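Regression test attached.
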Amino acid sequence: MTRTVAIIGCGLIGRAWAIVFARAGLNVRIWDADPAVIAAAPAALHAACKEVGQDPLVLSHVTVAADMATALDGAEWVQESGPERLNIKRQIYADLDRLAAPETILASSSSAIVASQFGADLPGRGRILVAHPVNPPHVIPVVELCPSPDTALVVMDRAEALMRDVGQVPVRLAREIDGFVLNRLQAVLLAEALSLVAQGIVTPQGLDDTIAHGLGRRWALLGPLATINLNAPGGIADYLDRYGPTMARLSNGAARGEAFSGLIGQDLAAVMPAPDQVPALSQHRDARLAALSHFLTSDQQGTI
Amino acid sequence: MTRTVAIIGCGLIGRAWAIVFARAGLNVRIWDADPAVIAAAPAALHAACKEVGQDPLVLSHVTVAADMATALDGAEWVQESGPERLNIKRQIYADLDRLAAPETILASSSSAIVASQFGADLPGRGRILVAHPVNPPHVIPVVELCPSPDTALVVMDRAEALMRDVGQVPVRLAREIDGFVLNRLQAVLLAEALSLVAQGIVTPQGLDDTIAHGLGRRWALLGPLATINLNAPGGIADYLDRYGPTMARLSNGAARGEAFSGLIGQDLAAVMPAPDQVPALSQHRDARLAALSHFLTSDQQGTI
């Protein structure tokens, strides 16, 4: 029997998830509280496929549900991708938990709201977690799986297995933490980046070049820990012996939250591509990410 | 007339630089204080070319110099790639400044010692800077150009132009700063990464997956600032309005220098590829980096 999942919320993220599950051959039911969003979804899904070279035929696995209950019927997994507002999430999860069969897992795409904030008071809190993708998940495979203190281990096991089954790369967090892993790493790097630009040490372009034409390439191939494991003859312990004191000094002197305040946003906006270019640049980024993903996957086969 | 550069210090970094300049068609003179290193250099250069698919014929531009003065004769640029120890750098720069023609630029590959520390007392301090590559520079193009307070602007201009001429991506820093840009960014990310692993929130593999299969892919294509410029409908100012407070909270709660202390290195070494695998894995990394560089360069031609 073909497995079934439901996508609740059909904005950019929900539609990208629909492609992830559909191309893996699962039945996908989509629903959104806003009739205009759901009416536009089929054409938007088609366009999203075309932009990244995905055959739109996979969309034959996607059906629009008439209401939330119909979407949930027989679904083993709900990928909730609604607005990033706590009061809305609380209402959605109250509805989902009431309507979904007991064995259905309820996973949120939330990037900033932890599951205990919207699930702790519900009878089904043990089947609720965050499955945070990097936008857009049909071209970036990582998914952070973050439990609340109530999430059952068996639910985490099933979440991890499903994500692997559909070709994503699940990263399982041992317990709930603000920002999960990805945005904690992004936050510290951005703080120092914004500070260096605000001090006039480097231009925004120079800052981006340092990562895009430098460290980011190693990180994209290996990740930051595997990178330093190869940066000293004796591996990571040797690296930390040699360079740990320097790295500690640099971190202690680095910027923190204050880097996000002030006029830095307006200063940067003045020299970076303008907001009216964001849609076209985002489409182009996604096409390049899809090509990069293809490159990394085929290249990876040669890994020793 | 063919341009000439000198490589002083022929370890891994010096040899990679020799390939960078040679493949751009420059005359390259190499020299090392250790006769054993210089004796092994031709074979090591040949092997390094083969590993990344570079035709070893470019090595016809490389000649071994009998002594430092011969290496410097007629060179417009010296890429010093000696040991990362201050007392040794001081001696090398005293010799270089005495022996090199006045117009020759003296650039250090140092990753952690700023130019004022070894150049401030020399008559030629105005022509000394750091040109910090990411290892290895023949497969990773970024080069941080960091002046001392004494470095002449015209020297920075010539450094930037030369790096562009040989196909690298120069990032010019406005003034001297500990760690330059790249390692300041790496330090803060590593501190938080080590802390998350030490706390048991995520495994080392999960941490690396989060970047390699997630954020690192965007960073490799765009860099961190161009990434957030596309992560809100109104561009980077909109992003910082929406997510700045969250990012500030996460940075304020992040780990710092203390994350580099303790037993984390030994714990990580126990679960990561062992030191005896480092040489083979590094070779494999370089081959993949060369392929990635080729992919990004050809893909970039389609950039809007």
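Expected vs. actual: identical. The CA atoms of residues 48 and 285 of chain A lie 12 Å apart.
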